[in-house]
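Tokens help. One example:
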Amino acid sequence: MKKTLCVVLCLSLCWSMCLAGEAVSSNSSDVFRIVVIGGGAAMGTSAKLDVLHDCFQFGTTNVNTVRETQTWWSILGRILSDWFDGDAEILNESVPGGFTAEEAIKKVEKVLSQSPDLVLFMFGQDEALSGIHTSVFRKGLENIIQKMAAQNIKTVLVSPLPVSERMMSEECSMSDVRMIQNRLSDLVRAVRQTAEKRSLSMIDLNRFFLENRLAYDHLFEGRFPDGVAQSAMASFMAGEILSLFGVDGFPDPVLCDYRKVYSSAGNPDAYHNAFTDLIYFHKKFFIAFRTGHSHGVPAHTTSLTEAIMVMSSDDGITWEQDAVLKAAGFDNRDPKFLNMDGRLFLYAPCTRISSRSNKPRHETYGFERMGPGQWSKPFSCAPCVLWRPRQWQEKYAAAAYAWSDKDAAVKLVSSPDGRKWKIHSVILPVETDGNETDLLVEGDILTAFSRAGSGKDLLVSQYDSSGNTWKTVSTGRIIHAPNVFKVNGRLMICGRYCSQSDEGFRKLREDWRLFTSGLDSDADRADAERVEEYHHGLRTGLFVLDKNTPRLVMEFLSAGDSSYTGVVQYGNEYVFSDYSMHEHYRPIRRPGDWNTPSDIYVLRIRFRK
């Protein structure tokens, strides 16, 4: 039986154990319990999804707030599940409001009833707001520690989140905020001193927020981490916990910047912005994405509005339109850049539905940038979907799928000039149902990463040049539109994954198929809540690939139709592009409710390891 890690999170106090190098033991044979308790900030669901934007549910003035599956502790559970040998179940017992020494014991007794192996405490912010004196708070800490020690329970203190100037309102002046901040500083000091006095381990979450301006700026109402901050916070907490458990290899990603760079939510003909790519070329960032009416390929052929938007930026912060590219009569999709010896090419796999056969026709067109805002006319490359070309040896290579002859699911194609592409070998046979495939080029060695199969598992294929053949294994994980790159010599992969387990995701998918079949009888049989759980569970995930096993390290703020990332290294940071509809997401109650706007985002991440 797989060991389950049951994590009940309480953000804000100290860790009372040092697990590095120790074997993890539990009170039962199949469950390792980590219980966390804390105040309002620890709950995670009290915040607006993104403090910098409206986040209105599409067609309403209802504000989207952080759902439980988007909280820091829910994401943390998914990360730990990939790094521990078993599942991590996070249970949050946090309750808003400050505590006294006597109330602390009551909270602890509730935790002890769950027979935890490890307890995390996260108090301090609510106590500062309610004016609890430092001596009372310190006594409460001591009572907690003594109670845990008497029961031989490992305990960890987590310093409280700060409060920011966003707390200011008609009722709360700047002087009030400063007073609360000073009071909170005393409580943070009490946590640190108690940890040192008792030789306890501590996660200094307060310092993390104060030193990470992005996280600090994303405190809703000055105290609750929004979805951006919780994404950053989850990876930080994961790194600290894994270090305490003596688990090596976590790259400790730090989210340095997160911003929306394009939205057309008010344009019903082009509010779906998706399928991104990113490149740094001639000291400029370029981002490309498809803008259209919806995710799918339109059935009409006379007035297709779907096109490729190209934007540029000197700093990755301020963006301006460079061009709108289009092969007429097609739905232009999935743009991919290629730097070809100092010349910038963009490839757009184009699709249209045949009026006679009602089947899609695929053709990849290329565009070459001739100067600022000037691109060549589209030129035909291949009768297929061409995916992310790379330089390989003295030529260029790409994975291609959706060939009209259908004798293979995914083929390796090559070109000497980036214009005409020829078949080189078969990566995946048609039985695999493979499609989106990224290539990793290391010298002469090629490795392909493919979305394939009915469950769309991620397959890894190694090229054998001597026989012009490929050897394929499955990662056992669902990752769509994989983008593969290296960080400090380690293989990373970014793509769309499901926040449920893959097994749970496949089961939920049955309701999705019924709901989207187009038949009222099928839609009536589907469970709308399960449909929403399926669709909202789609996220952009960042993974380390360890011996063909993807291990989650960060989940971007995202939901529903999302992901399809671009990535470039820029100094000691990595810049990512993706798309998501999380800001506009509305509850799904009937077919079509998922058709909401989706916007384009750019993130910067630094890896500490």
